[in-house]
Amino acid sequence: MTTAVRISCAVMTHPRRAGAARALAASLPELSPTVVTDPAPEGAPSTLRTSLAAWAAVPDRATHHLVLQDDAEPRPGMIGALTALVTAHPREPLSLFCEWGSATATTARWAALGGHGLAECVDQYVPTVGLLLPAPVARELVATVAPQGREEEPDDEALARFLERTGRTALVTVPNLVEHDGDLSLVGNGHRMGVRRSVLLREAGDPAPDPRVLRAPSMVPFVSWRRARAAAALWDTTGPGRHAGHRAHLRAALAEDGLPHAELVRELDTWLATEPGRRLEGMLGFGLPHELWLAATAVAAWAPLPARDLAAPGAVARRALATVAPGGLRTVVPQVLDDEVALADLSALVLAAFAVGARARATGAVPRREPAPAGNGREA
Q: Which long-range contacts (CB under 8 A, 24 or more apart) does 26-29 make?
């Protein structure tokens, strides 16, 4: 760790999961994490109450404080990669994880396509499986956000409102530096939200992350895991980034941008006539592949990147694109998560649709969507 950056760490937990928290802390001796348990364990579990106690554990010596949930799984090289990114962006909140079905997962995929090591978090919450704040920001959070009367409020939504109120935007590391075990939840999210895996994980031997930040445009497409429909998060780019709602029915938005729905359906029908297409339509019908096709086409067509970055996705970007379908379908057809053939076919569908959007960009049929300049209160 450099002399300029001193990262402290706390692992937040409930007494029922204290063993997992201690094991996680022991796996990170370089950070000497403090295990912080729910200060009122006799009550209903509260991520907000427990996380505020973990943020309060920032020591005086620290320049930055990292809070990990007890089900976070650090990836190889996490500390070195995180230290490099913090050194490059010492004032920014950094999330170490985003789940594969979020809108933020799309900005992470764009970052992977363009070689950026960070991307804006654009959902109405901030991913808190692993989150780092500058130490003064952590202290401000504890001083201004009280859990009393808000015990049922998720900490990720409370953090998002705090950052918005104070003019800050969180960034997610690309690749993600922690995984989320995702299947069990003390607050009941596991069953309702399905399996929440990383959009793209750091692997052993990966190089140091590029410190460039992928800034989001005004619409960020994704597949809504609630409805398995192509949708878009709306992103206010006029100042520090701010989530501004959602838009459904991407076929209309794509048509407005020069990709008529009839053309996209013809492209999809052609692909469904292939062997993997026939298998998928036989398993899922037409509707789910159709929604995936629209979303993956939009991921390419609306990417805030030069067209050359979309022409031939590299290995890392292909890994990120492979999580589009399982992230969006996980609650409606969870059985595909354990079906290797179906996952391969879904990845092929996403790549084919992405190529349609990339060709539209290359020919100029769809203009590049530009994010706001790095000014407007946002660090470059």
A: 27/74, 28/74, 28/79
What are the residues facing 222 on neighbouring strands? 231
DSSP assignment of 148-209 equals TT-TTS-HHHHHHHHHHHTT---EEESSBSEEE--S--TTSHHHHH----BSSB--TTPPPP
Relative to beta strand 171-173, strand 94-95 is parallel
Domains and CATH numbers, the chain: 7-214 (3.90.550.10), 245-362 (no CATH)
Upstream peptide bond of 367 is cis (omega within 30 degrees of 0): no
Beta strands in 168-310, from DSSP E residues, in sequence order: 171-173, 178-180, 213-214, 219-224, 229-236, 242-247
CA distance 147 to 70: 20
224/140 Cα distance (integer angstroms)? 33
How many whole angstroms separate alpha carbon 49 and alpha carbon 356?
Answer: 47
Cross-strand pairs, 176:
201
Q: Which amino acid is at 146?
A: A
Record the pTM.
Answer: 0.94
Asked whether 119 and 241 are in contact (CB, 8 A), the reply is no
Angle of helix 135-144 relative to helix 155-165, nearest 10 degrees, comes to 110
pLDDT at 285 over 90: yes
Sequence letter at residue 36: V
Q: What's the pLDDT score for residue 109? A: 98
pLDDT for 193 equals 84
Q: Read off the pLDDT of each residue in 59-67 and give the average, rounded to a whole number.
A: 98
